[in-house]
Design a protein that fits this description.
Elements: H1 2-41, H2 67-99, H3 103-131, E1 136-142, E2 145-151, H4 158-172, E3 179-183
Parallel strand pairs: 2-3
Antiparallel strand pairs: 1-2
Helix pairs in contact: 1-2, 2-3, 3-4
């Protein structure tokens, strides 16, 4: 009788350990995606928005290379980084959804749905911003905040930032205070 209780206890502990390992792995991947987005898109000197530092001028970017090659490389690398992080998150979440049941499965499926909605909103935002005369654009939505980086010959003035802010709000429902707009 005692051996049966130990076996049941071990299998329960092993099951809890496996589930916790999966949850921790998902959280680490999501954290990595957030960190990479921070590295790629946040630069306080070039931040445009309605926060503390919205009065400064926006420079044409901070690339070490010159010309359009540096800009093209930046946008290509940013899109690749975004797609890689999303693909990895989706794979982990799909694995969680396939291997768990109940609340964990529902949570994983909800996160997959949120990522898909963010991807659709990002594509719509980028298309509309390019239609407004920007040659390149990358948008990253992370929860209730977003970062937009545009490439343009003209400087970002308040009217252009307002137009981008309107597009992001209409497509994703993200408030201007949670939006970062940069020119590269």
């Amino acid at each position: 009788m005692e051996n049966v209780k130990k076996k049941k206890g071990k299998s329960l502990i092993a099951h809890i350990g496996k589930r916790n390992l999966i949850i921790v792995s998902v959280m680490l991947l999501i954290g990595l995606a957030v960190y990479l987005n921070y590295l790629w898109f946040y630069n306080p000197a070039n931040h445009i928005g309605y926060g503390d530092n919205n009065t400064g001028a926006v420079s044409a970017g901070d690339a070490t290379q010159t010309g359009t090659a540096a800009t093209a490389d930046y946008f290509d690398a940013a899109v690749l980084s975004r797609e890689t992080a999303r693909r990895e998150s989706m794979e982990v979440l799909q694995s969680v959804a396939d291997t768990t049941e109940g609340e964990e499965r529902e949570s994983a499926l909800a996160q997959i749905s949120q990522i898909a909605a963010a991807m659709e909103a990002e594509a719509n935002i980028e298309t509309l911003i390019k239609a407004n005369g920007y040659s390149k654009c990358v948008t990253v939505i992370n929860g209730d905040s977003a970062s937009v980086v545009v490439s343009s010959e003209n400087a970002l003035d308040p009217a252009r930032v307002a137009a981008i802010t309107t597009i992001v709000y209409e497509q994703a429902g993200i408030l201007p205070v949670n939006l970062t707009v940069k020119q590269k």
